[in-house]
Write a structure and sequence with these properties.
mainly alpha, Helix Hairpins
Length: 188
């Protein structure tokens, strides 16, 4: 006999009384068992989804590293469009938690992050390290790394804002072609 059954019997509660503490305890125990079963199902599904996500992320990382190695070694050139790159960098940022609801989801923070990358390029210049190896374990100079970060941030921002970056770049370049020499006397 369980402790609960012994307690119920010792108090003289009737099992057929739906308002008795016994009936309430039985109902609560059944609801608890059902909730625990639901939780176990959810946990199993999350574990399965997590394993699938881990496998997808591992495959994407492996493909990205293989592609980056091929490009770095000069075996091939990146053949993605700007729109494809925008999707790839946005998906990576999302996988790394940078597109969670309420986190980094407003244009001011996107602009600040983009500005931060431009400032890092400026700081590398000020320190005289533009053409030195960057501080990451990749074969890039500081200039290459920071310019790549600027482009990655801009593409991520464009994707987040729903901007067709290829169309925007093409339209802006077409306009720039029509502008006068030094855009009317600008010095920079």
């Amino acid at each position: 006999m369980s402790e609960i059954s012994a307690l119920i019997l010792s108090k003289g509660w009737r099992p057929d009384d739906t308002t008795s503490p016994y009936a309430l305890a039985v109902r609560a125990a059944r609801e608890l068992e059902a909730a625990e079963a639901q939780l176990a199902t959810i946990e199993a599904q999350l574990a399965e989804d997590g394993e699938r996500l881990d496998a997808l992320l591992a495959a994407a990382r492996r493909d990205a590293l293989r592609e980056a190695a091929d490009i770095a070694a000069g075996r091939r050139r990146a053949m993605r469009t700007l729109g494809e790159w925008a999707e790839v960098v946005w998906q990576n940022a999302k996988a790394k938690g940078f597109h969670e609801p309420g986190f980094n989801d407003a244009p001011p923070s996107w602009c600040a992050n983009l500005h931060g990358e431009v400032s890092e390029l400026w700081e590398a210049y000020r320190r005289g390290k533009l053409n030195e190896q960057c501080d990451k374990p990749i074969a890039l100079t500081c200039a290459e790394e920071e310019l790549a970060d600027i482009i990655i941030r801009a593409l991520d921002c464009a994707r987040q804002m729903g901007i067709d970056i290829e169309r925007a770049v093409a339209a802006k370049h077409a306009y720039n072609v029509t502008r006068p020499h030094q855009h009317g006397g600008k010095l920079a």
